Predict the 3D structure of the following.
Amino acid sequence: MSNSFGALFRVTTFGESHGAGVGAVIDGCPSGHAFPWDRIRAQLARRRPGQGKLSSPRQEPDELRVLSGVHPQRGLTLGTPIALLFTNDDARGEHYDELAELYRPSHADYTYEARYGLRAEAGGGRASARETVARVAAGALAEDLLAALAGVEIVAWVAAVADVDADVDAESVTRAAVDSSPVRCPDPQAAAAMIAAIDAARAQGDTVGGVIRCVARRVPAGWGAPVFGKLSAELAAAMMSLPASRAFELGDGFAAARMRGSEHNDPFYIDRDDGTVRTRTNHSGGVQGGISNGETLRLAVAFKPVATLFRPQDTVTRDRREVTVQARGRHDPCVLPRAVPMVEAMAALVLCDHMLRARSARAEPPSGATR
Amino acid sequence: MSNSFGALFRVTTFGESHGAGVGAVIDGCPSGHAFPWDRIRAQLARRRPGQGKLSSPRQEPDELRVLSGVHPQRGLTLGTPIALLFTNDDARGEHYDELAELYRPSHADYTYEARYGLRAEAGGGRASARETVARVAAGALAEDLLAALAGVEIVAWVAAVADVDADVDAESVTRAAVDSSPVRCPDPQAAAAMIAAIDAARAQGDTVGGVIRCVARRVPAGWGAPVFGKLSAELAAAMMSLPASRAFELGDGFAAARMRGSEHNDPFYIDRDDGTVRTRTNHSGGVQGGISNGETLRLAVAFKPVATLFRPQDTVTRDRREVTVQARGRHDPCVLPRAVPMVEAMAALVLCDHMLRARSARAEPPSGATR
Amino acid sequence: MSNSFGALFRVTTFGESHGAGVGAVIDGCPSGHAFPWDRIRAQLARRRPGQGKLSSPRQEPDELRVLSGVHPQRGLTLGTPIALLFTNDDARGEHYDELAELYRPSHADYTYEARYGLRAEAGGGRASARETVARVAAGALAEDLLAALAGVEIVAWVAAVADVDADVDAESVTRAAVDSSPVRCPDPQAAAAMIAAIDAARAQGDTVGGVIRCVARRVPAGWGAPVFGKLSAELAAAMMSLPASRAFELGDGFAAARMRGSEHNDPFYIDRDDGTVRTRTNHSGGVQGGISNGETLRLAVAFKPVATLFRPQDTVTRDRREVTVQARGRHDPCVLPRAVPMVEAMAALVLCDHMLRARSARAEPPSGATR
Amino acid sequence: MSNSFGALFRVTTFGESHGAGVGAVIDGCPSGHAFPWDRIRAQLARRRPGQGKLSSPRQEPDELRVLSGVHPQRGLTLGTPIALLFTNDDARGEHYDELAELYRPSHADYTYEARYGLRAEAGGGRASARETVARVAAGALAEDLLAALAGVEIVAWVAAVADVDADVDAESVTRAAVDSSPVRCPDPQAAAAMIAAIDAARAQGDTVGGVIRCVARRVPAGWGAPVFGKLSAELAAAMMSLPASRAFELGDGFAAARMRGSEHNDPFYIDRDDGTVRTRTNHSGGVQGGISNGETLRLAVAFKPVATLFRPQDTVTRDRREVTVQARGRHDPCVLPRAVPMVEAMAALVLCDHMLRARSARAEPPSGATR
């Protein structure tokens, strides 16, 4: 169960970094939807390594193969499981052989062995960010369903790298603006400073972390669920399942803890144009009691600095010797730019699942199937 | 599914604030464990309202009834579902009648109606913190299993209220120290300042939020799971399912985003005493790749200020009129002290579930059942 | 997880035979539906023991308490978990004390101890048919939703007892006809013979088994799911979860295994009246490829003879001694009449779940929630 | 969720008959087990079409590709998802084009369209028996774990074809004996009569059904779970998820319904050799109260005759015209011989899942993971 996510739009991923391939099976995708090859490829391109000096030089074409679930002639989803496969073409196991016997600090090498007694040593195995290629593809499908069926739009961006913070208008920012800089920060001044910070770290064999912010616009009121199925809870789980994520905020997050209720509460009013219920402020980030209120959904995710350093570190081996390790091979000095489509994907998976779950919330006659 | 949590130690809660009662069904509790009445009652007492001027004067004895799952004579868990019931004795529906037609700002009134078309108006219905009494009881049972079977110890405390931050040693703090102040902050100076901040807010009909920190000690290496079943993801979901929670951190959390890899990485070494693998620092908070590494698990949860204010606020009614609302009745000016056992309970639920899940991680002959 | 059933209309039952009570939590009931007190009570009355000499004299009023999930003033479902509780009033633990140390043949005493190391000895504990009171209540709610939202009607009857077979027209039989005899067989001649067979067995301290047949009418085409979610698979699981059930058939069942394809196939035709696709025969029992085809759903369930005998039987004790046991207390000589509403309840749970699951089968804009 | 099976050993299958391929993802396989290539290939060979005149001439090499979850050098399971892929090499879509517009009687063509609005027309799409190749592979892995960790042995055989019944000793029959006839019936006389019955049906363009029986030996007492997780319920669901299955029996099944309790009950005794609790008879089929009792597990599954006939049948088209259809292409006249490994696979999946679930049944200190 640990490798599946979602209740009705259920994604199961598989694959190790340097095995035959990675992929996903999506069970519960509604039928009759045009499979969005372009949207998926666009998000895969944004996630792909080798995009420039900011990211790892590993070359993976990330060619998407759809094994099932799409009508071969009509290109529509069938309602049956959609299996996606990405073969690992640029896997270079030999780079990693010397690492097989030791545990890289702040990687999952030791913990996987503690749990399973062995691990796929090459490239981090199952714990590699390579796994996220499958989620990004599944998330892009979810995003396409959200756009087509409910008009929802999701945009994420790099809001901080190291100690550089960006100033971005969450209500208006677009993906085009995000992609205008290689660091995926739509604030040009901050973007320049972020790139400088990444370069400075890399020059010292070091790495940096940062923060991604994400909005989902036009989420209708009434998505989410009580108690453990809260949007807040499932979005948190979604984001904290991403490699290197360390913290999650909804709406004002930690800043809310320092506010008074009179500052933080979002007063309701009636929109004169369409008679809908709106809030004058949005400290809640679009979610109240775990259910969407129709305002823009806002969240943030913090990523730790990349654990792989090109400088010596103390560590230990499987047979309990203390040694020193220094990375070679291909590694991002900063995961933030590539994590932008990952955050968008995870947000889309949660929202698509709740779009479907909302359909059974009320006692209404069934639509669809007739004799 | 939205009201259930956990895979093997699965808790389903039910109940509205002012209905007949609230409770939980725990499916998957291992058999043969002495049902921990004392531990459960102790945690319920810490969660109970009416503990003093810092919390709501609602008087609920929170008397625990165990309907099933415990051997009536021997007091041992049976392996069958354990149903817990708390009847609502001090429910005063009449206090809330005037609120039935309007949506209180930053409560779940509007969003529940958006989803379900109606709601249990009195006391917040299903969205009330009353629901957490069932989780605290279930969590105390989980905690007892963790202590008995694996020696795990969980301690949470109030780390911040409004703009007051406490200074607490996470490695050594005890529940006794936490409970030495009514605000459940083990730093006496900070505790006094927190109480002052709460009093100041209450005097103005206002409310405050804050931060709870939590540790779990002696979690063995190897609990957790890959990808979506990461401890980090499930702990985040657990904490973000608590009423009023707005943010979650594991280990250094948001601070990690500003560090370099060389600062944040936790170098491994071999413990000379017992030959185990340890880390010299613990920025990771005891979790790497979603799986425990044997160090102390550290997390934090931010809570927004209480939404119920004793001062006028703008809002709207069900029939789309703009009105003003001012709270009456019984409400906490600050949820933090009572949220301490809630955070402990949710941490225990996640860890107990993974303690059980770890049992099937490896290909070993089955223990237990024989002919 | 073992005590829960259903994906979207999810029922979790709890309780031992002679503990404080038994009950159910229903998570996922759509909101806004009038809680069907009368239908539930009617089905509970049909399940109740003490209905006459054919069944156990145990007197349980089976008074239904609804703890949550229903609007207290309006009587409508809230969309939140519906908790049902039946307290055990006529539990007579003392009758069973002598049985605590031995394993009754063909009961679950030994197997529960093999699994859990202990059991609730009195009355069969969790394995007692007492548990089914909660399912019957939950099933009656499901049935009411099916009737209100989709016009589905479910009727079950006793089709065989011992070697007596009834002749019943599955297309036209009604619950009134079923209830016209105490043995719940709508074929009067067969009913008389069944009663005689039950009386003859009882006179010898013996028991009998039998077969229940069940139809669901007006199930629309398109309910069900591929592969493991087939209606056939979930109905089979539902029925085989009932105490004493030993076999399941869909449509022609075992008889189909002896037919040729040319006999068994159901040719399609177009209904001249409404243009719908129909089948001229219904050997398939209304299900093809696991999905309903719009014809009457037909199934059968075989129940073994009651295991409790009022005559001596060889058995063993917990401490491995060979002894003789003879029942005392209150026990049905034949479970079939009371099992009729249980079979209806389980059919309703499966169909209601699939009614809700069908809502997310196709890519259609969401209904319901708007800003 | 409909395409997944199992709680802890969770198998998700994907794929359409004439798409790119079919496969499975197994989440929850314990780590450190040697991946059983030989056992899997052996069971695949027994399931493969084209084994002779008794089955379809479709030629699929069924070459197994393992995409993930197995250590590339050591051949051990990693504990991570095991993805299996079978590409469709002999898919001949053109044979089926004429069928795209009509609904074959007693196939799933119509019901899939009623549910999803479209279907993969070629070869039955997702409803094809092609899907079972993935289950047979996953089941063979489960069977290998059962054999290695608990000594369980599973054997199924063809017990009836059309009106021919075999006489087989369930306690002693072996797979070698089963495979001694092409019809997989270990009773030589019955096997000859079955082959004659199949030949006779084929000569008339007709088809036959039959019954498969299956035993699992050395299942320890204490596997299974209460209420909805009963072995009986899960085995029934497993078998009724197989294509063309129509009925399920555990132990004496329908025959039990005609017995008296004094005939059907299984008296306990103490085995003088090892002091274990045994039963003198095994009418229960090794399961009491849904939990294994240590005796041989016995079940039966009825399969309807193959729906594809080489003779004209009445049917209708998608645009509601009445037409006649006659099959061409490649189809089995009888699925029974190939269904033998499918029944074994499904039994193995249920038992392997419960072997793992039994590990968390009791409150015992965790094994395995240490610091």
